[in-house]
Design goal:
With 217 residues, the protein is an all-alpha fold. The chain is built from 11 helices and no strands. Helix 2 crosses helix 5, helix 5 crosses helix 7 and helix 6 packs antiparallel against helix 7. The C terminus is likely disordered.
Length: 217
């Protein structure tokens, strides 16, 4: 369950985050800063608060009521809720990392490419994308790792039903609650190992210190 939901949410962050970050990077500085602050806000919120916000928005009192009534689809206490919570927490981080990477690209390279006959799409294809490749890979690694360890928002939206909406962090909570300390320690050890491997991979594919700083925040 944990691996499956993490891969799906990371893929969604990639699909939504890349065009969003590239679009924001082309906006006027003032508008760009405002939008960037809005997107970064979930990074500064306690994850339980983010979970409550998602619960209100996608529960029966919000969009969830409409989805359940007309499409028989619900995020609350389902696997889809796990993915929703992971995406909400990690999408701002993905966008921030890509924005920082775009800002580091030398605009003179794009200008020279245009003077040599490249149109906007070609300069994007041959200059922007190759320069973003490592940062995109490191961003995917980081959001996948954070999704694997997400607890607060997932618990609020999807609950902690054993063998139904149980992921590794909620499994630790359930085992501690039932007094099974050994199993909780075992799952915690696995999560620690995943975090260490993810951090090593993050740096190997081109992660930088300031990206890691935002990841921690």
């Amino acid at each position: 369950m944990s691996i499956k939901t993490c891969f799906i949410s990371s893929f969604i962050c990639l699909i939504l985050g890349m065009p969003t970050a590239l679009y924001i990077s082309k906006l006027d500085v003032k508008i760009k800063n405002i939008i960037e602050y809005i997107f970064i806000l979930p990074l500064s919120l306690p994850h339980l608060i983010s979970g409550i916000a998602l619960l209100i928005c996608f529960g029966n009192m919000g969009i969830g009521g409409f989805l359940l009534k007309y499409f028989n689809f619900s995020f609350i206490f389902t696997k889809s809720g796990i993915i929703l919570a992971q995406c909400f927490i990690n999408l701002p981080l993905f966008i921030k990392i890509i924005l920082m990477a775009v800002e580091e690209i030398d605009s003179k390279m794009i200008f020279v490419a245009c003077t040599l006959g490249c149109n906007e799409f070609e300069s994007f294809k041959y200059i922007v994308i190759p320069n973003l490749k490592k940062q995109v890979m490191s961003a995917i690694v980081m959001v996948w790792s954070r999704a694997m360890g997400e607890f607060g928002a997932v618990m609020m939206v999807a609950g902690t039903t054993r063998m139904k909406t149980e992921v590794m962090p909620t499994a630790i909570f359930l085992n501690i609650s039932t007094g099974d300390i050994n199993l909780a320690i075992g799952v915690s050890t696995i999560l620690i190992g995943i975090s260490i491997l993810s951090l090593i991979l993050f740096y190997l594919v081109g992660g930088k210190r300031k990206n890691f700083y935002y990841a921690k925040s």
